[in-house]
Amino acid sequence: MKLKSMTSVITKSALVLAATASLSAVAGTMAPSKEVAPQVVPEESGALFDTVGATLEVGYDTRTYYRGLWFADNSVWTGLSLSLPLTEQLSLGLGALYSSTVDTTAGNGAPFGSGDFDYSELDLTTSLNYDAGFATFGLVYTHYEFFDGFSGTNGGVLNGTGEGNVSGADEVGITVAAAAGPVNVYAGYYYDFRIGGSYAEVGADLPIEVTSWLSLVPAVKTGYANDYYTSGVVAGAASGGFTHVVPSLSAPIKLTKSATLTPYIAYNISLDARHTLNAQDSEIFGGVKLSVSF
């Protein structure tokens, strides 16, 4: 009788322990843990794409210098660019830019005459860009349309002969851009089918973050022309050579997540291929642009 009672007690004790362990396990799984953060489910944007890959820009320049050559004063411009990914490394770029002078007075001596002139231009660009990791390579095609002639040549400001007597041009180029530590380095080579001339340039910039919304970007660029809008425009102009050196300083200001305002100041230094063509051999100019990405 005692043995039976002892067996019964042991059996009941085992059942109680098992039930207690089971309840403890269930309670442990149900109790919140301080070590595990709650999972956050990201909200869906409700759109097919997060961004379109486009950038809209508007700007103003006190002087328009392009590849070291002066075109006009007080220019306003609008540009739209679009980047379309084709693969993880290859993308297609499309762009359009329209520029027009508000007020340009040519009265600074040879090779320019006196009086005002109109100048407006449309550039249409398409490109293929390949990101190789260590550098990005591009193949670029651009059509230039000069509605008032090349740098106002239709108005008789320049002689309007030779390379200055064009109303449009087509160009193909190859580009490369890479980062050398904190410095961005870029280079390009371009061939103009309209005049049979070529142009090469190299440049670099160094972005310096001042605050979370303000940066300073010192930069420098130089170019070399080979019968590229140098000869036949004015008497005595060189057929080729180094065009210019342009040190500059810009200050991108991040207004919102997608909008950036960038004022800049630059100093154009004319070299052999531009001495007789520019109204000022060397001068300070500047401007500002607003960029919005979407």
Molecular structure report:
This protein is mostly beta strands. It has one domain: Porin, CATH 2.40.160.40. It is 10% helix and 50% strand. The protein contains one helix and 14 strands. A twelve-stranded antiparallel beta barrel has the order 1-2-3-4-5-6-7-8-10-11-13-14. Strand 2 (69-85) and strand 3 form a beta hairpin. The longest helix has 29 residues, at 2-30.
Protein traits:
294 residues, 1 helix, single chain, Porin, disordered N terminus, mainly beta, globular
Number of domains: 1
Uncertain segments = 1-7, 9-34, 153-160
Beta fraction? over 45%
Q: Radius of gyration in whole Å, from Cα?
A: 33 Å
CATH architecture verdict: Beta Barrel
State the distance separating the first and last CA atoms.
89 Å
How would you characterize the largest beta sheet?
12 strands, antiparallel, barrel
Strand order of the largest sheet: 1-2-3-4-5-6-7-8-10-11-13-14
- CATH topology grouping: Porin
Topology:
Elements: H1 2-30, E1 54-66, E2 69-85, E3 90-101, E4 120-131, E5 136-146, E6 168-180, E7 183-192, E8 197-205, E9 208-209, E10 215-226, E11 240-250, E12 253-254, E13 259-270, E14 282-293
Antiparallel strand pairs: 1-2, 1-14, 2-3, 3-4, 4-5, 5-6, 6-7, 7-8, 8-10, 9-10, 10-11, 11-13, 12-13, 13-14
